[in-house]
Amino acid sequence: MKIAISAESTCDLNKELIEKYDIKIIPYKIILGDKTFNDGELSVEEIFNYVDNTKVLPKTTAINEYEYTEYFKSLKKEYDAVVHIALSSGITSSCGNAIRAADSLENVYVVNSKTLSTGIALLAIYARELADKGLDAKTIFEKVSKRTESLQVSFVIERLDYLYKGGRCSGFQLFGANILKIRPRIIVKDGKMTKDKMYHGSMGMVVNKYCADVLKEFNNPDLTRVFITYPTATIEMASNARQALIEAGFKEIIETRAGGTIASHCGGNTIGILYFNDGGKTE
Q: Are 95 and 112 contacting, i.e. CB atoms less than 8 angstroms apart?
């Protein structure tokens, strides 16, 4: 059986990794003023420049049921089945739209990832590995859905102004954060983003503390693969994260840049480490 593994552009995989793992991508839309772009058409720097100049956040739009239906139909022309890993239903209505589209088609399965960014990428790569082993689409769907519970997905944010513009923190919190250099940790739990820790100081030092905390709290990692993901980051930030993961024993450490959809909601110098926290035991 020839199976397409699919995800939205919010999986934050670069072109090389998309080609390596043969993952099909349907893009979100990003709206800047009166112009609409596919996610990936703009660099994150262009998005950040727009926000700096206009003081307005970009808008992102959910993918509707019709768009998913046409997309899945196009994949079914070449593949016997489709396994699509969707952005968490706790974050977007797109997931529900994808599920309804799949229900109208044969051999199309939609996984509610309950996560975002390269957490989705981890699931997609796992799905590809299962497909390459010859598993059928329904079994892949079931195994990938089960493994969503094992994801560790978190980020630490330098600037709160994007959260403020998006209505996710108050002006008082923004003011205090700027004065005290407070950097919140955002973690994905039960399919939703939540602030659960606060750090303060330079981002280089904060990344060290953040990585140490995550690796201590989520201390049963699958050491096969880990992502370091950021829209922008200093050399020090990325280097500190990589060193922490080397010392933790990860075999493959992949750096990726978050795409336009994720960057539009968190701003620059946001960095996260993302991995499966199940010791690699998937049965």
A: yes
Question: pLDDT, tens digit, for every residue of 127-180?
Answer: 999 999 999 999 999 999 999 999 999 999 887 665 544 444 433 343 344 444
Distances (CA, A) of 232 to 91, 149, 229, 254: 22, 28, 9, 15
The Cα-based distances of 57 to 13, 29, 92, 101 in angstroms read: 23, 14, 17, 30
The DSSP 8-state label assigned to residue 145 in this structure reads H
Please report where in the chains the tokens 């059928």 appear, as a residue. 136
Task: Look up the pTM and report it.
Answer: 0.93
The rounded percent of the chain whose pLDDT value lies above 70 is: 92
Q: Are 184 and 243 in contact (CB under 8 A)?
A: no
Q: How far is CA 163 from CA 63, 86, 115, 169, 203, in A?
A: 23, 23, 18, 6, 17
Q: How far apart are CA 117 and CA 66, in angstroms?
A: 24
Question: Please, what is the end-to-end C-alpha distance for the chain in angstroms?
Answer: 23
The radius of gyration computed from the CA coordinates of the chain, to the nearest angstrom, equals 18
Query: CA–CA separation, 48 vs 93, rounded Å?
Result: 25
Give the whole-angstrom CA distance, residue 250 versus residue 92. Answer: 31
For residues 140 and 184, which has the higher predicted lDDT (pLDDT)? Answer: 140
Full strand arrangement of the beta sheet holding 23-26: 23-26, 3-8, 81-86, 108-112
- Say what the alpha-carbon torsion angle 242, 127, 115, 102 is, to the nearest 10 degrees: 160
Give the DSSP H or E segment for 59.
Answer: strand 59-61
* 271 vs 1 pLDDT, higher one: 271
The answer to whether the beta carbons of residues 112 and 147 sit under 8 Å apart is: no
Give the closest residue to 69 by CA, choosing from 91, 99, 28.
99
